[in-house]
Specification:
mainly alpha, 3 helices
Length: 92
């Protein structure tokens, strides 16, 4: 019972973290694609960024008042996403 209560409190933060991470990972990968002149990859990832940004505007702003530290959680996810995107783009 206690573990379920803890999970219920943690899950919204995990979701914000993952949103920030995914968003910035795509942006980091897109920067590498643009710099390399990869038009197709830049188009596909740029489209994915825009779709995610559209959904993030609602998802991130809603819990801001409900979750203390939500912005920090999203920001840390974005930082991790930056490094993940840089790494993934180098592998491509």
């Amino acid at each position: 019972m206690c573990a379920i209560l803890v999970l219920m409190k943690i899950v919204p933060y995990v979701r914000l973290f993952l949103r920030g991470c995914a968003q910035v990972a795509l942006v980091s990968a897109n920067v590498v694609q643009v710099a390399a002149g990869d038009y197709y990859g830049a188009f596909v990832v740029g489209t994915a960024i825009s779709v995610m940004w559209y959904s993030n505007t609602r998802a991130v702003n809603k819990p801001r008042a409900e979750l203390p530290g939500a912005g920090l959680c999203y920001g840390v996810g974005a930082g991790v996403g930056t490094v993940a995107g840089m790494y993934a783009a180098r592998l491509l």
